[in-house]
Design a protein that fits this description.
With about 500 residues, the chain is α/β, with parallel strands linked by helices. The protein is about 55% helix and about 20% strand. The radius of gyration is 38 Å and the shape is elongated.
């Protein structure tokens, strides 16, 4: 409590009483001196009363002094506790985001007098999976453990929590080798894990480092550069340490430029959906795969391998996915083939928005879900969380067919075929290409087709480019085929013209 509040609370009673006592004592002393100079008894009585009043006034003043001192001491303690709560994260003990950024601003110096510091951004890997798999309590313990390890490895540095599972370490000086050594020690400590229900759960983190003033001399720019380095660590497989490199800026600019261009292409309808046929063993078209293409007005055709990864790193993949599905719904009645298959990104499957979007577009276009096959890659399936599996099952309940694409490129064993909610498997083209001379490819394809037949699954051979590959895939047990030998991806009007020509030939025959 402040002195001002103390004065306001006690002013009317205590302070006025003290003033009254002191004024009375002074008046009595003056009366004793001037009014009764010859009467010693009166003078003595007045002096005694004056002394008593003065002592009482001094006592009250001492009481007020102690009261105010105690209140000030309590105020200092409360203010210190309030500061601790506002400047330190309650869960981990690290500085809060605002306090850490203030410290960074102070430590980095000015343009004329820069100081040498290193900023490390640390992100706990797979934090959502830790929360989902072991509970939020373990997730909180993992965050606190990360900060404890960071304090051990960086004892003379400032550590802050920027939000969620992202932390920052401010290391003074420019000894980058020492900084990397400490960061490696931190990763090693995290790898030892954290106990949970009798098991030691290993932890991992990705780290990005930027150095001032070598890379930037602004407290606003330095975190952006460290974040770029952190992004590279995540993209390279996580659990890594990456120091900012100026080349990252050009890559970032390129990505940002392509993001803007792609966003405009979606709004301006510059994307195209080309269709590649899937045939049965008699080479009759049974299905079409819709493949997105980008016809840029200046650069011409942009490869999906170039713009899809950029879209997946932003929310553009949801926009591209909706455009593709809507276009396929509108094109559905153009073809006599039963179904259209489209690719679904693993990033889309991570969000509930995919299910809502597909349902909404079906209602808006009047299309039926059972006319579509949604293809997910093997790598997405092997890393699927229970939430992703639940979304896939919801899509099957809506009527969609699910195909496992690029089977054989990752670590998806035959056991997955029994557990994953799928209707078809597309064998990667690398196995089809080697069927003629690779014994392992022959055994793999033959075994897969036998298991799929038992499970009632459709087996698609991808990448058929020759008559021999078609015959070998058919002999191995595949019942659907796709590749340039059977048909290249083409725009919808071209597919329609070919279908009309086939019908006219059949009539004239």
């Amino acid at each position: 409590m402040s002195i001002l509040s103390t004065v306001r609370r006690n002013g009317k009673r205590v302070y006025i009483a003290v003033q009254t006592l002191l004024i009375t004592a002074t008046a009595l002393a003056a009366a004793a001196y001037f009014l009764a100079p010859g009467d010693s008894s009166v003078s003595d009585w007045l002096l005694f009363t004056c002394l008593a009043l003065s002592i009482a006034g001094l006592g009250l003043l001492e009481y007020l002094k102690r009261t105010v001192t105690d209140q000030l001491r309590d105020a200092v303690r409360i203010e210190a506790e309030r500061t601790r709560l506002t400047e330190n994260d309650l869960l981990t003990g690290a500085l809060t985001r605002g306090r850490f950024l203030d410290e960074l601003n102070t430590s980095i110096g000015t343009l004329s007098k820069p100081r040498r510091i290193m900023l490390l951004l640390v992100d706990l890997d797979h934090f959502k999976q830790l929360n989902d798999g072991f509970g939020h309590q373990f997730g909180d313990e993992a965050l606190a453990h990360l900060v404890a390890c960071a304090k051990h490895c960086f004892p003379d540095c400032t550590i802050g929590r920027l939000g969620g599972d992202e932390f920052a370490i401010l290391m003074y000086g420019n000894d980058l080798a020492r900084c990397r050594s400490r960061a490696e020690k931190l990763l090693a400590m995290l790898q030892r894990g954290r106990a949970c229900e009798g098991h030691q759960i290993p932890l991992g983190a990705s780290i990005g480092i930027a150095v001032a003033p070598q890379h930037a001399s602004s407290h606003k720019e330095l975190p952006l550069l460290a974040d770029l380095a952190l992004y590279e660590s995540k993209g390279a497989g996580r659990g890594r340490i990456t120091v900012f490199d100026p080349d990252m800026l050009s890559e970032k600019r390129q990505r940002r430029f392509m993001e803007r261009e792609l966003r405009a292409a979606i709004y301006l309808n510059e994307l195209e959906l080309h269709y590649q046929p899937l045939t049965d063993s008699e080479r009759n078209c049974t299905e079409l795969e819709g493949l997105v293409r980008w016809r840029h007005p200046v650069r011409g055709m942009v490869s999906p391998a170039e713009f899809i990864p950029v879209a997946e790193r932003s929310n553009l993949i949801d926009m591209v996915g909706e455009w593709v599905f809507r276009r396929a719904c509108l094109d559905l009645d153009r073809f006599a083939c039963n179904r259209i298959s489209i690719n679904v990104s693993g990033e889309q499957l991570k969000r509930d928005g995919l299910v809502h979007m597909l349902d909404r577009v079906l209602r808006e276009t009047g299309a039926s879900a059972n006319r579509f096959v949604l293809e997910i890659t093997e790598t997405v399936a092997t890393a699927a969380t229970p939430e992703i599996i639940a979304r896939i099952e919801r899509l099957r309940e809506m009527g969609f067919h699910i195909a496992l694409d690029d089977f054989g490129t990752g670590h998806c064993g035959f056991n997955y075929i029994k557990t994953l909610p799928i209707d078809a498997i597309k064998i990667d083209r690398s196995y089809i290409r080697n069927l003629g001379h690779d014994r392992i490819a022959q055994v793999f394809v033959s075994a897969l087709t036998q298991i799929a037949r038992i499970q009632g699954l459709t087996i698609v051979a991808e990448g058929i480019e020759t008559e021999e590959e078609f015959d070998l895939a058919r002999a191995a047990g595949c019942n659907r085929f796709q590749g340039y030998f059977l048909g290249r991806p083409e725009a919808a009007p071209a597919i329609r013209r070919k279908s009309d020509n086939v019908e006219r030939l059949a009539l004239t025959a």
